Each structure stands twice: as C-alpha cells, then as structure tokens.
Amino acid sequence: MALHLFQMLKTSDYASVISMNLFVALLCACIVIGHLLEENRWINESITALLIGLCTGVVILWISGGKSSHLLVFSEDLFFIYLLPPIIFNAGFQVKKKRFFVNFITIMMFGAIGTLISCSIISFGVIEIFKRLGIGTLELGEALAIGAIFAATDSVCTLQVLNQDETPLLYSLVFGEGVVNDATSVVLFNAIKSFDLEQPGHGIALQFFGNFLYLFIASTMLGFLGGLLSAYIIKKLYFGRHSTDREVALMMLMAYLTYILAELWFLSGILTVFFCGIVMSHYTWHNVTESSRITTKHSFATLSFVAETFLFLYVGMDALDIEKWRFVSDRPGTSVSVSSVLLALVLVGRAAFVFPLSFLMNLTKKSENDKLSFSMQVIIWWAGLMRGAVSMALAYNEFSSTSGHAQLRFNATMITSTITVVLVSTMVFGMMTKPLIRYLLPFPPPPPKRKNSTVSLDESASPSPKSITVPFLGSNHDSEVETDATDYQRPSSIRDLLTTPTHTVHRLWRRFDDAFMRPVFGGRGFVPFVPTSPTECSGQPSPEWD
Amino acid sequence: MALHLFQMLKTSDYASVISMNLFVALLCACIVIGHLLEENRWINESITALLIGLCTGVVILWISGGKSSHLLVFSEDLFFIYLLPPIIFNAGFQVKKKRFFVNFITIMMFGAIGTLISCSIISFGVIEIFKRLGIGTLELGEALAIGAIFAATDSVCTLQVLNQDETPLLYSLVFGEGVVNDATSVVLFNAIKSFDLEQPGHGIALQFFGNFLYLFIASTMLGFLGGLLSAYIIKKLYFGRHSTDREVALMMLMAYLTYILAELWFLSGILTVFFCGIVMSHYTWHNVTESSRITTKHSFATLSFVAETFLFLYVGMDALDIEKWRFVSDRPGTSVSVSSVLLALVLVGRAAFVFPLSFLMNLTKKSENDKLSFSMQVIIWWAGLMRGAVSMALAYNEFSSTSGHAQLRFNATMITSTITVVLVSTMVFGMMTKPLIRYLLPFPPPPPKRKNSTVSLDESASPSPKSITVPFLGSNHDSEVETDATDYQRPSSIRDLLTTPTHTVHRLWRRFDDAFMRPVFGGRGFVPFVPTSPTECSGQPSPEWD
User: Fold this and answer.
1) Can you give the pLDDT at residue B69?
2) Of the residues A186, A505, B181, B523, which has the maximum number of CB atoms within 10 A of its CB?
3) Against a cut of 0.90, is the pTM above it?
4) DSSP result, B354-403
5) Nearest CA to CA, how far is B80 from chain A (Å)?
6) CA A251 to chain centre
7) What residues in chain B have per-residue pLDDT under 50?
8) Dist. CA A384–CA A100, nearest whole Å
C-alpha cells in the first residue's frame, strides 16, 4: 500500500523502478532488523527505520557524488493522503475504548487545552528568543504557525514506546492525547493560516474557539456516522450470507471514504478516521464473520505498521536533503541555535501543561489509586516530547514557498531545524523512554517474550491471559469491566457517582447502547454467531478490546 | 490500495479530492450492488462495475457539457504497477496447486502454443481483411502487435465466470491458461516491439523462441526464489516468537518486491508474481501463525477483489473517452467494421487452437473420464474469449503515439475498437458464460447459498464440507489426494504411470519436497504448531488448498 505512493515519479521511468526496488527492499530490511532488535531496550522500530533511512541517504549521497540523498522528496500529499489515514484509523480501531472514554476528560484536557498552552508558549518564546539572539523578527502569524508545528506530538512514535498491556493508564492517556493533539495541531495550523492576523479584533479569540469547536464536533460526527453506516449496511445486507472479502473491502473503503470526505469538507480527517475506527470496532466488527474479524484486525494493524515504517524510513532519508542543508551551511551557528531553542521550548511548553493539568485532574479524584503520581506525570511529559511526521508535513507546508532570498534562507533554516528537532527528539527522547519507565515505575517485570512488543504487533493486541479464560459469546457484558488495580472501582453509591462522573456517563451510554444502538447497528451479543468460516470453534473467546 | 493510484493527479488539487471521493464511493457502491445481484445468473461483479463505470461516465459527460467523461485517464503504469500484481499474486496464492500441476502440460499447450496460434491468425487475418475492406495497409510489426493485443485473454474476468468448486477441471484449465496467456502476450508484445521486423532473417524464429524461453524460465525462477526466500526468512527468524503483522507485511512486501525486480530485469512480472504466490502458499503460509494464515488468505483476496472492481469501473468510465470517439465519429463505419473484424478474429483465433489442441491432448489420455468432451471444449473456447485490461493497456502502449494526422486517426480507431471489443466481449460473452455452462454441463445443481460465489470471495476459498471432517495437523499428507470423479485416479501400476506421466512427476516432486524442501523451507506438517494467536483451537483443520 505504502508502496503505491510514488505519485511524484513517472513510474515508466527506469530510474523510478530502481528507486521502488530499493525502497521496498529497505522496508523488508527494516521489518527483519526491527524484529531481530526486538529484545533491545534502547532501540525500537521507528529508530531502526530512521537509522536505516539515514544510512541509505548517506550511501546515495556518496554514490551520486553529493548531488542527492533521497529517492523521493518529502511530500505532504503523500503523508496526509496515504500514510496517515491507516495509522490513525488503526489507532482508533485497536484502542481500548472503555479506558479511552473513562479518561476522556483528562485526554481532552491534555489534547486540546494542553496543545493550546504548548502552542502559545512556543509561539511567544520563539518571538522573544529569536529577537534576542538576532535571528530575525517574526510576524505573529509565522510565530503561531511555528507554535502549531512544534505542538504536534508524534502519536506514531508514542505507540512504539508505551505498551497497552504494561502501562494501560499511561498508554491510554498519552496516546489518546496524541490523537486529539494531532487533530488540534492541524486545526490550529489551518485556523492560523486562514485568519487575518494583521487586524486582530475583539472577536478573534471567540471566532477561533468557535471554529475549533465546529471542526471538532463536525469531524467527530462524520466519523461516527461513517462507522454506523458501515455497521448498518453490513448488518442489513450481508446478514446470513457473509462474504469475508466484501466485508473487509467495504470496511476499508468506507473508512477511507470518511477520511477523504472530511478533507473534502475541510474538516479534520484525522479526528474523523479515528472515531470511525472506534465505531467500526464497536459495531461493524461484531457484524462480520470470524475470519473477517481476524483479517481486519491484523490487516489494519499491518497497513499501519507498514505505513509507520515507510514514514520513518522516508523521514530518515529525507533528513539529508542536501539542497536545504547547503543553504544553511554558511551560517551553521544559526541552525544549531534555532534547533536548540526549539527543542528547549518543546520541553518547556509540554511541562507547562502536563504538570498543572495533572494537578487539576488529581484534585477531582478521591482515591489515591486514581491520581497521577509524580513519576507518571514525568513519563507523560517525556513520552509526548517526540516530534514526527506531522511536524515535518506542517513545516513543509508553511516553509516551502520561495519568495525572496532572505525568506528562502529563513525557510531553509526552519526546515532543517524541524528535521533536526524530529531526529533528535525521536532518537534521544525515544530511546530514553523505555529505560525511564523502568526506572520510574516499580512494575513487576512482564513476561520476557512480550517484553518489548508494541501496539502495532500481534501479541499486544491479543487478549491478556485473564480474558482468555472468560469466554463471553453470550450477553455477559460485565466481563468488560476489568478489575485492574490501577484502573477504577465500579461506583456503588451516589457519592461515588458524583465524584466519578465519567463512570456515570459510561453507564448511561451502555444502557443507551444496549437499548437503542446495538439492536440497529449490531455489536457484541446482538449479532447471532454465524459459523461460516473455517476458524470457528465453540467457546472461543473473541479478542477483548472494549 | 487501489485508491492510492491517482498518481497522475495533483492531490492537493481540490478537484482531485472530489474525484477521489466519487471514485471511492463508486467502489463501495459496486461492492454493495454486486452483493445484491449475487444470485442473478446473468450479471457478475465485473459487469456491474463496468456498467456503473459507463453510467458514471455518461453522467460526467452530461454534467461537464460533453467535455470529459472520466475522472482519470487510463494509465498503463497504474495498471501494470498497482492493479495487476495483487490480482495475479492472489490467483497464484489461491490456485489449487495440485490440479494446476497435474494439468500443467495442457495448460502450457493452451497458454503458450495456443496464444502463438491465436496471435498469428489474428495478425494475418487483420492484414488480409483490412486490405480487402480498404481500411489500410498494415506493416508486419503493427499487425503482430495487434495479434498480441487481442490474444490476451482476460484472466480476471475468467475468475468471475468459472467456479473452482463447481467445475474444477475447467476452472484450472481456463484460469491456468489465462495466466500463462497473459504472460505470453506481454512477452510476445515486447518481443515484437524489440525485434527488427524490417529485416527478417533466418534466425529470427529461433531467436524469438529463445527469448521467450529465457523470459519464461527466468521469470518463473525469480518467483520461486522470492517465495522460498520469504519462507526461509520467516521460518528461521520468526520461529518461536511470531508476530502476525510483521509476517503479513513481509509476505506482501516480498511478493511485491519479486514483481518489481522482474520489471527491473525486463522479465515478466506477471509470471514471477504468480509463481511467487504458489510458492508462498506452499511453504511460507505454513510457517506463520494461524491468524497470519487467515489474514493473508483474506487480505490478499480482498486486495485482488478491490483491484478487479477498480479496474472494471475504470475501464467502464474510460470507455467514453470523448476525444478518441470524436476522432472516429466522421467515419463511424470504419470503427464498426474494425471492431467486428477484430471480434470475429478473436473467435476464430481461439477456436483454431482450443479444438485441435484438445484433440491432441485427448489422444494421450486413456480413460474416458480424463478426456475433454466436446461440451467442455466449447466452454473452454467460450470462457477465454473475454478481452480485458491487459488488451487495453497494450493497446494504449502501442497506439498512443501522436505522429501525423493519418496515423493519429488510425490510432484513435484502434483504441476505440479495442474498447469496443473489451466491452462487447466482457458483457456479451461474459453474461452468456454461466447460462452456457448450465446448458452444456449436466452437473447436479450446487447448494444455492454458494451458487454464484466467485473465487475472490470467501466461501469458494473455504474448505469444502468433506475437508472439514478430515483434520490433518499431523503428517497424513494423503488427504491431499482428492477422490474427485472428474479428476484422476491415483496411478496404481506401471502401465498407468506411463499413460499418466504428470502423476509420476507429481509423485517424484512430492518425494523430493518431503525429503529436501520442506525441512528447509517449512510447509504443511514440517512446522510445529505454534499456538500464539487467540483463534487457535486444537483439532481445527487448516483450509485445504493443495
């Protein structure tokens, strides 16, 4: 899939066939080497792909005699149209929905308000520090754009350093925040570009907020509706005569359709496809055959995995874009200082919302177990520091205009600095996350076999040993309520309900879901078990995702 | 996947986002409508997609005021680089290997020698008839190119009209022939284009034959080696700690790598990826986890299904390419007569090898059961008459040069005639195949539920009821030998071995396979059962494909 992306190449060109061969071979190499390094505590698959990309870039640079370092030029379209949708859709599809929604308020606080705080700090920090260091005077619009670019956490990389089974709460918080943050950054960035900041009026903040709210709600609704439509179509039409391939094709195509519909209507495709993934795993996934379930689960994960690997390989290769570096090579000091300033601002900007917001959230919790300890806050702060392809894509969008030499130099500096920040944050921060978690959290060590598995891999998505022993083909929905010590206790009195409002919402939602939604759209326990596939056997538990 | 193909569009363009939305929505519509029409005896999915494409073309033509009828221009690259590989790979992956190899000689006769006969008849027929009708005098090279273009059976459409479970022998013959024929046509076409036909010498036939043989053997070997490499890597590296997503990704990427490697080395990618599919389903598929098996089986089928649907939709939409039709509209008679001549030559050219070659093959068979009856020969003749995307792609390659007005007119005529032949043969011949089979072959009617399922759908690929009752997790390989009345009897004496040489070859191969290949590359019975996935349960039969 990811291979189909050489849109910028004339594929009849023989040179492009060579590039494709090399690229596919490198992807295979990344997968094999990533597997071999699985037990390593420092390296993860993103870093492997980045390093392989960098090495290949060096080799190409050497072969071509310093002319070119990459097989492909980083293209925003490629990223936003082909690589990002499968990654984010899969994230929605595989996310543990109950945990996500139980922590919904915290996630929204971190993802939306936190991003705004981070963006503001970076923006004003950049204006002030650039002025003092004599790098240049930024316009407000440019500074805000830089803020939005560097407020975008890399949720793809986050998935690789945190583990859904080992640290479920942290995972759901950091990853959920990452998704909302992705969307917020893109929305912010577009809002900043479309607003006329030259004439700031009274209503601009309100207008901005209204715009953000509209985008958020409309995108979410579109995703929900797309998911429900797919569930309805498959439930109504396919009932009794299932066909795995049609079901899988329809799920894929409809998910992609919601994404490009969102793009068509200038909404946030990322949010849309994320919620579409959630709805599809809650309803549609239960309406299809057992083989469709296994196939969708793994093929979406595989697509996402290949897209991630492709992306890191691509960023690694593109990092040596010699044209850009040549531009800044006569003033290397500037580039270094800009990168350092940005990295420092990223660190400060994130700290400035993680710790205060965690403090606020802790005030609302009663039990010591529900509170975020200081160690956890540090991990949340650290794990969200990585900047990745979203930052790259936004930076290329903002700084690829070619108007005037001074502007050109500034743009080249910003792009090389973005690349530096992405590489440093992914490699240095990424490498140190796993050891940091082990140092800060005194968890019992997980079984060695699954020690370093990431969410995009099979093992971590398969049910935990506990859930295997609880078959729930019937209506015993209570098995969904897990009794995890780090999670929450079921509310048993009115006082509890008041202090833990999300649980009430969850319960009301469950009642509404069982009474109205599932009878129409299907879902666990509401679709008769159709034994059409060869993998069916009685008493076999479905993977427990909710 | 198929959606990633808008390489000729600037995707940042808003109009192209609209096109993509429309195209994806139409794909969804094709799947749903194709499902609803599944019980219909005349219509199949290809025809549905073609008709929807045509209707959309008419609507676009009407909306744009006669300016344009398609969202995309037919692109050879699109077809050969993205759409064809998944279709042919899946065909190799899902083909019943034993039947394919037992009928190998017949398939090769039909596919290679038959295509040569068909190509010669069409070439010389075109020269003669065009001269007599006053359409023009063709050069030998042009005529041979036309021969190669119209000798290319559409194996994609064949898959839709024949059923692997209902008519296994016919299916394996016609489909196997189709794959070899695809490859032969492309090889022929390239050979014709690269040879200097102006100065025909003595050695040209020999050189041509040598070239064909080299391409055939080299392509096949590359496919075999690619498949074996994937099996070896997965067996060696992944042993004991499987990861479904990595395995699936590696299988997909390595299969695609063999295809583009073949293109890189100017071999036949179609043959390569077909044999790679066969080897992967024989070795690699048995080395992976149970969930990987289900996932690969269905996701490859889904990819192929989506690519097929995309293709027919695309051809249907492109058929109304108004520029081309405007060129020929001042001489409508010519276009009609060219199309009729070509259709007639296709019919005659195919009859000229199916019946003689069947007669020859029947001479070598002893048992009445093994012989091809006249009814079967008629079906083989008829089912291979459809011309599809391979013909379109080759025609665009040959006739898209723009040198001189007369040449331009001739080229436009040839392209519109190709489109006409493709549409007429797919719709008319395609629609009549199912009724023809039912009329000619007095089979017991199959169970209604699976009546019209095609090979790209779940049910036909799932094991037949018989095989479900025979678990073969151990070494009882004899369950592979099916006792099908229309198939063959196991040779039991030396006389039988002499009259049925393919069976001996098969037996020797099996012995070699068990002794040397499977211990190294894995395969059924040679890989310990690794219960890593949630779908595992003991005593459960794997799908029986061999």
Assistant:
1) 59
2) B181
3) no
4) HHHHHHHHHHH--STTTS--HHHHHHHHHHT--B-HHHHHHHHHHH----
5) 10
6) 20
7) 1-12, 444-492, 497-499, 531-546
8) 17
Alpha-carbon distance of A448 to B29, in angstroms, equals 48
In angstroms, the separation between the Cα of residue B298 and the nearest Cα of chain A is: 6
Cβ contact B387:B346 at 8 Å: yes
Q: How many CB atoms lie within 10 A of CB B401?
A: 10
Inter-chain residue contact A32 with B77, CB threshold 8 Å: no
Cα torsion A153, A156, A161, A165: sign: positive
Torsion of CA B466, B471, B475, B476, to 10 degrees: -30
pLDDT at position A439 is: 83
Using DSSP's 3-state secondary structure scheme, residue B210 falls into helix
Helix (H, G, I), strand (E, B) or coil at A153: strand
Question: According to the model, what pLDDT value does residue A179 have?
Answer: 74
The C-alpha angle with vertex A473 and arms to A468 and A479, in degrees rounded to 5, equals 60
Predicted confidence (pLDDT) per residue in B107-152, tens digit: 888 888 898 899 889 998 998 888 888 777 777 778 888 888 888 8
Q: So what's the pLDDT on residue B463?
A: 35
Interface pTM (ipTM) of the complex?
0.78
Pairwise CB contact (< 8 Å): A32 & B237:
yes
Cβ separation of A253 and B294 shorter than 8 Å?
no
Average of per-residue pLDDT values in chain A: 74
* Half-sphere exposure in the Cβ direction for B444 (13 Å, CA): 3
CA nearest A133: which of A409, A328, A343, A340? Answer: A340
**Nearest alpha-carbon partner for A338 in A416, A286, A267, A262:** A416
User: Are B532 and A458 within 8 A, CB to CB?
Assistant: yes
DSSP helix/strand/coil, B10 = coil
Q: Is B23 on the interface with A (CB under 8 A)?
A: no
Q: Say if residues B546 and B282 touch (Cβ distance below 8 Å).
A: yes
pLDDT at A448 over 90: no
| C-alpha dihedral, A307 to A311 to A312 to A313, nearest 10° | 100
Amino acid at B156: V
Residue A372, pLDDT above cutoff 70: yes
Of the candidates B291, B310, B416, B371, the one whose C-alpha atom is nearest the C-alpha of residue B86 is: B310
Query: Stretch A492-517: mean pLDDT, rounded?
Result: 67
CA distances from B470 to A109, A480, B541 (A): 57, 37, 7
The residues near A255 (Cβ < 8 Å, ≥ 6 apart) are A85, A89, A226, A230, A273, A276, A277, A280
Distance from CA of A337 to the nearest CA of B (A): 34
How far apart CA B38 and CA B261 sit, in angstroms, is 38
Chain A residues with CB under 8 Å of B227 CB are none
Nearest CA in chain B to A15: B264
